[in-house]
Each structure stands twice: as structure tokens, then as C-alpha cells.
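To: structure desk
From: M.T.
Subject: fold request, one chain
Message: Could you run this one when you get a chance? Sequence is below, nothing fancy, just the single chain.
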Amino acid sequence: MSDSATTLDERIALLRRTISDLMEQATAASGAATEESLAARLDDLQQRLNTLLKERESLGGKAG
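Reply: Done. C-alpha cells follow.
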């Protein structure tokens, strides 16, 4: 596996963990402003994850 693929895999794994952690926070959050803020952050992270997954796919192989 190339260094860039390894780096992408690490970034993908980190984003997935961050999204998971944020989802847990969102389920415990109360208040419309907090929920909107968390939803916006989740959306941003998901878009970044999708971008990284496309980059990883273009290098060949699947992201783990």
C-alpha cells in the first residue's frame, strides 16, 4: 500500500471516529441551537469523508 493510500486510510478512520463521537453527542444534546450546530458539523464531516473516500477509490482499492 502506498504512503498516500495509508495516509488517506488514516484520515478516513479518524473522520469516521469523529462522526461516531459526534453522533453520540447529538443523541444526548438538547436544545434547537445545539442540535442545529451538531447537524451542521456532522454534515461537514460527512462531506469531507465522502471526498476522502473518492480520493482513496481513485488510488485503487477500498478504504477500510
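Reply (cont.): The chain has one domain: 3-54. Let me know if you need anything else for the meeting.
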